[in-house]
Specification:
Helices cover about 20% and strands about 25% of the residues. By secondary structure, the protein is of the alpha/beta class.
């Protein structure tokens, strides 16, 4: 029997408010298709449009995960809850979110909270399950709102996604896996901005040593610097295969087996 596919579709790669507001890149988050399990991560502005454009089936969505409540990660969460549950007529799916996405300036509307089977609160150092997929939130990130990155475990692969955060000591120690996805908003570090920069991403990649690293969530300066060229340069410097995500890019985790 053939193994079921494990594919990540990058619905959008825009990071930071100016890229999102101008839609120079799409900002829809990512769709994780892990065999019979479908997960939507960080449905920002335009997520619904990008999902339908890619012909992904919202009626089969099993879970929605918010890394944090900032609008570029959460603005479409309510319409996606409605779509996942057929307008509330089918009580199904799970929503995962930090507590402040529900309690303080909530981004998930109250009337929708009974639509999914359940809502689970993300906390530091915890693990969660969606059918045959597990994921962990190893550490609270340094960001203006409560934010978490993820380590996903599928039936065949382990990979990490480092979402928005300011660089901090030992950040790389919390993440592992064959694949590393990093939100890299800035070309150069800025002490006043709680986002990762390209030099910091390079350091993280060198410390974790994944088989493949994917850069995404680009700010304006990253975009102007041509992230695909930057990724190629990082590959040459680190000896690790580094890619720059593009809107609509599909990454098949089976590719990791060809990067031994």
């Amino acid at each position: 029997m053939a193994e079921l596919p494990e594919v990540i579709t990058f619905l959008g790669t825009a990071g930071a408010r100016f890229m999102v507001a101008r839609q120079l890149l799409a900002s829809g988050g990512a769709w994780l298709n892990f065999g019979e399990t479908q997960i939507l991560l960080d449905p920002g502005p335009g997520s619904l449009v990008q999902v339908t454009k890619r012909k992904l089936d919202l009626s089969k969505l099993d879970a929605i995960i918010l890394s944090h409540k900032h609008l570029d990660h959460s603005s479409d969460v309510n319409i996606m809850i409605e779509a996942m549950t057929d307008g509330g007529r089918r009580k199904r799916g799970v929503v995962f979110a930090p507590s402040d996405a529900l309690n303080k300036d909530p981004v998930i509307l109250s009337y929708l909270r009974s639509y999914p089977e359940k809502i689970e609160i993300l906390t530091e150092g915890s693990s969660y399950r969606v059918k045959d997929i597990s994921f962990a939130t190893p550490v609270k990130h340094h960001h203006p709102v409560e934010t978490y990155g993820f380590i996903f475990q599928t039936p065949h692969h382990t990979f990490s996604w480092i979402t928005d955060t300011k660089y901090f000591d030992n950040l790389s120690n919390y993440y592992k896996g064959q694949l590393l996805i990093i939100n890299v908003v800035m070309l150069n570090p800025k002490a006043s901005v709680d986002h990762l920069s390209l030099p910091e991403a390079k350091r993280i990649i060198e410390e974790i040593k994944p088989k493949v690293a994917v850069l995404t969530h680009f700010g304006m300066n990253m975009w102007r610097a041509r992230p695909w060229d930057l990724a190629r340069e990082l590959s040459e410097k680190t000896g690790i295969s580094v890619l720059a995500a593009r809107d609509g890019m599909r990454f098949d985790l089976a590719r990791l087996e060809r990067n031994e």
